[in-house]
Amino acid sequence: MNRDEITMFGHGVEVATKLKGSTSHDQLLIQTSESFSGLLLFAIGFLLLMVAFVKDREFQIFFAKGCTLLHVSMAIWRVYFEQKLEDLAHDLPRLVVGDIALALSWVFFLVYSWREKYD
Questions:
Q1: Which residue range or ranges hold the DUF7865 domain (predicted)?
Q2: What angle do CA 107, 108, 109 make, to 5 degrees?
Q3: In terms of Cα–Cα distance, which of 32, 30, 3 is closest to 19?
Q4: Torsion-angle region of residue 23: left (phi > 0), alpha (psi -120 to 50) or beta?
Q5: Which of 6, 15, 46, 71 could form a disulfide with 11 if both were Cys (CB 3.0 to 4.6 A apart)?
């Protein structure tokens, strides 16, 4: 599956055509952005793998608080800035709900670790 097929699957044919960029400079910027996004996802996955093996409960709580803040910030970013992009606005509710759900998963981890700490 190439990049265009993934974009069409996620956004639809019309939006995917608009997101490709009209000039070669736009296309290069979009490809660079997607490459950095992939690199960032890899780095986050690697970081989560490393944190999973840390036995220090206080560090894991600190990490979970940071992840919660990150997901809430991402949801706020989507509401305030991505809604201005009419091509991506129809995906906005689904993405915001996903960000809030991920933040809640970290909150549940914090509640679980708090329960273990005080039992």
A1: 3-107
A2: 90
A3: 30
A4: beta
A5: 15
The answer to whether the predicted template modeling score (pTM) of the entire model surpasses 0.70 is no
Q: Which of 11, 90, 68, 74 is nearest to 37 (CA)?
A: 74
Find all residues with CB under 8 Å of 109, minimum gap 6, and list them: 64
List, as one string, the DSSP characters of 33-101.
HHHHHHHHHHHHHHHHHHHHT---HHHHHHHHHHHHHHHHHHHHHHHHTGGG-TTTGGGHHHHHHHHHH
How far is residue 21's CA from residue 24's CA, in Å, rounded to a whole number? Answer: 7
Maximum distance among all Cα pairs of the chain, rounded to whole angstroms: 61
Give the orientation angle of helix 57-80 with respect to helix 92-118, to 10 degrees.
160
**Total residues belonging to the chain:** 119
Q: Per the structure block, which two tokens stand in for 13?
A: 């044919």
- The residue type at 88: L
